[in-house]
Amino acid sequence: MIATSDFLGHLNPSQRRAVEHHCGPLLVVAGAGSGKTRALTFRIANLILKHQVNPENILAVTFTNKAAREMKERIQKLFSEQLAMQYHSTKFDLLPEYEQTKLKSQVYKNTIKDLWCGTFHSLLSRILRFDIEKYQDEKGRQWKRNFSIFDESDAQSLVKEIVTKQLNLDDKKFNPRSVRYAISNAKNQGFSPKELERERPDYKGRTIAQVYGIYQDRLAENNALDFDDLILIPVRLFQQNEQVLKYWHHKFRHILVDEYQDTNRTQYELIRLLATNGETNKSLWDWDKRSAFVVGDADQSIYSFRMADFRILLEFQEDFGDGLPDEETQTMVKLEENYRSCENILQAANELIENNTQRIDKILKATRGSGEQIYAHKADDEIAEAEFAIHQIRTLERENPDINWGSFAILYRTNAQSRPFEDILVRQGIPYSVVGGLKFYDRKEIKDVLAYLRALANPADTVSLLRIINTPRRGIGKATVDNLVNAAQELGVNLWEILSDETSVNTLAGRSTKSVNKFAKMIGDWQTQIETVSVSEVLQAVLEGSGYIKDLKTQGTDEAEDRLQNVQELYNAALQFEEDSDDVSLQAFLASTALSSDLDNLKEGSEAVSLMTLHASKGLEFPVVFLVGLEQGLFPNYRSMNDPAALEEERRLCYVGITRAQERLFLSHARERRLYGSREPAMRSQFFDELPEELLTTQSRRRMERRSKSPAFAVNGVDSNQNWQVGERVLHKAFGIGEITHVFGGGKKISVAIKFSGLGQKIIDPQVAQLQRMN
Ligand SMILES: Nc1ncnc2c1ncn2[C@@H]1O[C@H](COP(=O)(O)OP(=O)(O)OP(=O)(O)O)[C@@H](O)[C@H]1O
Ligand SMILES: [Mg+2]
After folding, report:
1. In DSSP terms, which residues pair with 609 in a beta bridge?
2. Residue nearest to atom 2 of ligand 1 (CA)
3. pTM, whole model, 2 decimals?
4. ipTM over cut 0.90
5. Domain interval for residue 289
6. Distance 339 CA to ligand 1 centre (A)
7. Is the separation of the CB atoms in 715 and 701 below 8 Å?
8. Atom of ligand 1 nearest to the CA of 660
């Protein structure tokens, strides 16, 4: 057996208890940065190494796909290190590279490959690939294993079409977005359209239920599921079919869930069913052979708008343990040391969250030094706020060899706030990534190409067929398409059945007959290949055969060039997928693309400033964090102003934001802000007043540097962008040497005119241009 003592040494005693706990239920509750995720990861390793649990009997639920990947990599590394000691009696890092690779691939093959570790959505889509054909919905409808997954934008367009075209409803009264949200909520509460109608018998409720009903019909016709179905259908399937539940219950002996505070009722039900086999008699739960291990922090519950409910966390012991108070210590572990943040940051977070009434008090002690004060900044407007943050980033990056662009995160309340930051980052050539911006998989060209693949994998997917039938243009007009669709509806078959029948096409397609038949033949030919040919080869055939690439090339615009690159990137993704995955079927590839969440935009090891909403930042950590837009009505948002429970959720969100920071934290607000079009005066957020004054500073960077003896990161005291004088000679990166002829404005709004030899005079913002003085 492999010695486990080595890696358990990296844990404190409470973490160790959580990790070494073998069977039965266990709840780990602890504040931010206390090593909950780390404990969960090590626990998986320990189950396999010490208790010889077969990796395929472990189900680990993470909050993002990225977290799942990290967890697997971490375990792979731990195991490779153990094997290095066992086989070679030396440290892994000291082995030659080929030995390292060999060990890692051995660990991959024997362990990681079989581990079920991912988000609720990705794990359940896998389960459905096995068993969905055993499921029947309340109308007796069934789905096939090659189902498509409609992502949020697909779902939204479908709802829009039903609302505006099919039912001719006023889209002001029935905003498709809110209707989609209402449907999603209904699904998350487990309501069918009928049940929703019963729940909300008023006109609005009835109409939404009607849209919901049609929406479900359309999904079923397309052999498609939306994200909510990926959770809801397994729950119903398990409730319907004892055999199926028994199989998965038996398979997943050890269930682990990270971020349990953001679980909703349907997800909870799923965990309960899997852990207990649906048995309500607690004495029949064979806890001596299995475990349910969840970790979370009720203070970080921030997804109530997706029906998450942190009471589920608080009720864990009662639900899964036997509920006796003296048993408490056996089913719960508290972690009380924070390893992430400097003390000042942690203290600020702790004091802020104490303003919430709905919480359980807990201890969270710092293990690191006090660190620097938190910098509070008031800017004139949102542009000045962005300038401030990016100026700080530049300075810190320049002054500190230990940090790079990837050390910084800018966190905001709403997605729209990223724009001024992006503008300046682009102008200054600083690499950045917007986590949760327009997703790669949401871009038009990617959706087009994936629609081809979806139509191949699932011919019933009419939504995809309609997307590609005339993309790129192949002379199939709207009237023809309408004819074909109407005929399919009349006959109660799906569009592909009409398309793939030459006689029907000849009758219906008029002048486009030739083009439609050609299209159908092309799709039909590829459909026969998907079982035998790799995903990347299918993709290549589609890109070339469909004329998609050719069309982009002939357009010749910059935009088309961008789109070409994205399509190329999709091809790379397919190659990568073939290298990394166990199941390399086209369906598995499509599932992975549909489920790659916003948060996956966060590139591993990439040296880029990260921009994201506070919601997206959960579970992550960064050396330097900017929390921006701390203004009443923005953060906390206006909806929470008269709603105490909503305000508490905003405060938890602020707690999440503050606790992402390891070394430095900057809080900022603007005096006025242009948001949603108009320029409005803004008031500083009440959260500022809830932070201990002594931890905040508003002093200029210059003084701060002199005062702090050994700052974690020294900020450059001299702002070289100020005090420019007429007559000074300067060096500009692109234009070379020039002489300042004029200085406009002052302070942050300064700009200078410079005469460059041979180039004439140019007006330049010295903060942006990084001018250097020539002596
Ligand atoms: N025992 C330990 N010794 C040293 N560092 C630790 C220890 N436990 C955790 N850490 C480090 O502390 C940081 C926070 O850990 P982790 O992300 O697991 O916390 P968390 O409780 O999951 O936080 P969050 O609530 O934000 O999800 C990580 O960098 C982790 O590597
Ligand atoms: Mg965590």
Report:
1. 432
2. 11
3. 0.80
4. yes
5. 15-114+253-335
6. 6
7. yes
8. 26
